[in-house]
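Translate structure to sequence.
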């Protein structure tokens, strides 16, 4: 007789109880057991392996080993049945046919459930939480910048951009700063070393990083004829000792209006419009005389403190404390302004007897800091998302 039926069961196959794949497994196996013990053992061995197969490839391999048309263990055993003695032929033949049917059903059930599992893996699982796309946002300074440009655009101003690397003449000379005038002291200037000069050679440079956006007026006026109504936004540089309210680079926006008969009253109404739009409809303003070489008269505009509503003190429980933002004064300095100095008109070839004009200039960081109660100017440049995500 050929080798025993169970010989072709590979001991490396993993095994599982087939009843979870085929509910009537036990009943059908019991019937085989009453007929032929060896066929029962073969059914148990192949059945456990089919149930334990975890992929379709292994399942096919086991199926072939048991039921393959040419070399399947049960197929070969069935072929031998006609040669058996009569009484054994009946029971063995019936047992083998039952086992064949049982393993075929089991393999089909298993193939279906493995197929379903593979499909589930390929399918889109609509219950998985989505991946949030990263959404960027405007930098707080860029928002103020846009707001200012909107406002001035509405007042008839267009934007004029001028270089960040300037010459002494545009940053100072043509703006009526005499060569050794103390007004230059307020502008701690970064000079750009002349070409070829060794650093520390003491050579005095004519080229510098602009300390304010006012040089733009000179360039615009040299280029164009009056009337002019322009704003000059951009980055400026000063060799500051860096602290919570000073940076060595920051942003300004200057404004310039030149025409016949422009008056201080025009300046005042423009600045009031600006203050109410940017700081709030309820602020009040004041102009204080102050010296800037490029305007005469020159003024500083203050707005009532937006933190303490101009009171200088803040209520805290039963007592009050001094407002730290306006230092108790109730006022905030927000910009410089004035009527364009006749010497500036002369420097650009305008006739001061014919045209007049006003100008103003302010820091953009300061507006954002007051608007959002930001205590630290360095945050604007650090690109820390914990800060930027708040706007
Ligand atoms: N440029 C000046 C500064 O940076 C600010 C300023 C003052 C600008 C008066 C003006 C002005 O246009 O009229 O300190």
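Result:
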């Amino acid at each position: 007789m050929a080798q025993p039926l169970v010989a072709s069961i590979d001991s490396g196959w993993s095994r599982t109880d087939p009843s979870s794949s085929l509910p009537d497994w036990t009943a059908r196996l019991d019937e085989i057991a009453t007929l032929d013990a060896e066929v029962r053992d073969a059914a148990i061995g192949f059945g456990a392996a089919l149930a334990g197969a975890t992929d379709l490839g292994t399942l096919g391999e086991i199926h072939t080993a048991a039921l393959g048309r040419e070399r399947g263990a049960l197929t070969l055993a069935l072929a031998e049945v006609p040669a058996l003695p009569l009484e054994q032929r009946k029971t063995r033949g019936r047992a083998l046919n039952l086992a064949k049917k049982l393993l075929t059903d089991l393999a089909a059930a298993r193939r279906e459930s493995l197929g379903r599992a593979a499909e589930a893996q390929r399918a889109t699982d609509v219950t998985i939480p989505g991946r949030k796309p990263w959404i960027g946002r405007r930098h707080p300074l860029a928002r103020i910048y846009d707001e200012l440009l909107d406002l001035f655009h509405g007042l008839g101003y267009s934007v004029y951009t001028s270089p960040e690397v300037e010459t002494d003449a545009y940053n100072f000379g043509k703006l009526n700063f005499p060569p050794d005038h103390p007004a230059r002291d307020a502008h701690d200037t970064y000079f750009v070393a002349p070409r070829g000069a060794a650093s520390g050679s003491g050579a005095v440079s004519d080229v510098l990083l602009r300390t304010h956006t006012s040089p733009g007026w000179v360039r615009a006026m040299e280029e164009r004829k009056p009337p002019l109504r322009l704003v000059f936004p951009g980055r400026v540089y000063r060799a500051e000792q860096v602290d919570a309210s000073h940076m060595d680079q920051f942003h300004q926006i200057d404004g310039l209006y030149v025409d016949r008969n422009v008056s201080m009253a025009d300046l005042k109404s423009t600045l009031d419009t600006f203050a109410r739009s940017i700081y709030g409809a309820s602020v009040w303003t004041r102009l204080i005389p102050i010296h800037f070489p490029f305007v005469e008269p020159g003024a500083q505009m203050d707005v009532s403190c937006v933190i303490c509503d101009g009171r200088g003190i803040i209520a805290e429980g039963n007592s009050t404390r001094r407002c730290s933002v306006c230092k108790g004064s109730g006022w905030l300095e927000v910009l410089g302004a004035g009527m364009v100095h006749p010497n500036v008109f002369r420097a650009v070839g305008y006739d001061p007897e014919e045209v007049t004009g006003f100008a103003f200039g302010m820091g953009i960081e300061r507006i954002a800091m007051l608007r959002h109660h930001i205590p630290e100017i360095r945050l604007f440049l650090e690109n820390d998302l914990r800060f930027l995500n708040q706007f």
